[in-house]
Amino acid sequence: MAGLSQQGGEMGRSPGAHSTPAPEGTSAVPGLIPDLISGLPWPRWALIAVAVAAGVLTVSCLLCVICCCCRRRHHGHRKKPRDREAVGLSSPQGTTTSAHLVQPDVDSLEGGPQHWGRLQLSLEYDFGSQEVRVGLKQATDLRAWGPGSTADPYARVSLSTQAGHRHETKVHRDTLCPMFQETCCFHVPQEELSQTTLQVQVLSFKRFSAHEPLGELSLPLGTVDLHHVLEHWYQLGPPGTVEPEAWGELCFLLQYMPSSGRLTVVVLEARGLSPGLADPYVKVQLMLNQRKWKKRRTSSRRGTASPYFNEAFSFLVPFSQIQSVDLVLAVWARGPQFRAECVGKVLLGARASGQPLQHWADMLAHARRPVAQWHHLQLPGEVDRALALKPRLRLPLPGS
Prior knowledge:
Blueprint: H1 2-12, H2 32-39, H3 44-90, H4 106-110, E1 118-126, E2 131-140, E3 153-159, E4 166-168, E5 179-187, E6 197-204, E7 212-220, E8 230-235, E9 249-257, E10 262-271, E11 278-288, E12 291-297, E13 308-316, E14 325-334, E15 340-349, H5 354-365, E16 371-376, H6 380-387
Antiparallel strand pairs: 1-2, 1-8, 2-5, 3-4, 3-6, 6-7, 9-10, 9-16, 10-13, 11-12, 11-14, 14-15
């Protein structure tokens, strides 16, 4: 018994007589951390500072990881609708893809009907001269498409009973609220007022492409009391397709050198001419004080309704006379009866209006720089009335 008790005492002893027992529930070697700390040559305050810095660095890293996770989750929730739309558009089996995913309807974006702006007009009828005076005051809240959300608007006024007779205002740059302040007159017999409709188109000017329609107004004159001067605001309707001109278009370039007094006209090309016309060519006439002064012409182009000329003409016009000069470009061709006839004309100068006046003003404002532009051909009689042509002076010949 004594041997067993002695053996049990030996088994119950720890290997190290001087070591302290390890706490229960831990697997660390007793006395390891204190021995390591006591073995370092650093003072106690340095060890505490290192421990604090390590703790701060650890907390900062944890905060950065948490913030990054939160941001990824936030962006992931935002991009989910776009991902769904992209999958729906590219997948051939998708049956729920609708047109509004590609191009939303403007009405749904604005939450209401479309508005094309307003136009302020004044109307007056002179029963003595049987003329309708249309005063274009201003337009507001016009609608433009494309980058920048701006336009170069101008107005075109015409009557339904007078084909080819129209008035165009000056082009106003970079605005959706142009101030026109222009007046035009149309001769309309009193008995035709009830069948006449006033048509106003507001367009955005484009120098080398088709002009962009912004809005339209159709006002039957039979529904308006023309015994008094009327001035009202009218709501513009949706723009329709601008009908191509029956007389075609002409593109040419203008350049003026004030120092040498040289006016250069480059006839480039025409388009939209009647297919029944043959051998088109262009006459360039320079007029001074309402009298024909100088003229040139291009060569004929056969077998085409869109001839390309690219011919240049120069005129000597002193700077003191440039404001008194009118430039007329006329397209001529042989008709069905094999006789040369004038297809249409373009008038430029101080007495022009609309786009031709703007082209002439751009040439003078940017001297020495060529300015090219497309122009709609007008009826020859309309241009002649605007010029109020006087007969050419008959100079006496020698010996007569």
